[in-house]
Predict the 3D structure of the following.
Amino acid sequence: MTYDQATADYFNRETPHYDIGTNFAETLEFLRAAPPESELLDVGCGDGTTIEFLKEATPIDNFFGMDIASNFLEEARSRTGCSTIQGSILDEAKVAEYADRFDYVVLRAVLHHLVGRTRRSSLEFSQRCIENTLRVLKPGGHLIIAEPTYSPRMVNFAAFWIKQLVGSFTSNRMQLKAPWLNIAQPVVSYYTAEEVMSQVRRCPKAEVSSSRTVEFDKLAGFIRPSLTLMIVTRA
């Protein structure tokens, strides 16, 4: 897999805006000590919200945004003046082009969008994404992960297959009560905090510098949403 046209079409059509979130800002506090000449890549940069925040909050001068959606990249350039890379972090040729390049890589709310035909193949894409982000880092560089996670695990299985089923009949996004609560497109594959941490620890070049899970109020009495935050150093 190198390019998901259906997902690119969805985000070019919708081009949603995602707020940075206070918990993510807290995790990036250590970037305030980064040298100005450092290069940071935001994978799945969207409209550039994260880069815009980092330009104001850190001394880093050199920002790059990667996304598969051209509309997102146009907005990111306009908003931040960053350099942009159109393509997928799952594209091996693209990863080889930027291997050992960056001092920092941000992976914010990306893993659940890397979807295959099954949960197993989606998990493989997520694992490869983490491995490839480590490849584009310099040795000693840092990967920052901020991924929404849910438990119990069976909820994530159910959400995936319900979205797959409804998505086979309509390409429209069907919004329910909360902003995150929708069915049909785009299909997503959420993971538990333990699954995300396990994926990172399976990477041979990954050294976990810090990790924590921020838990939020339960939904429907038993669904436990959370945000998994990790700083991973490339060995």
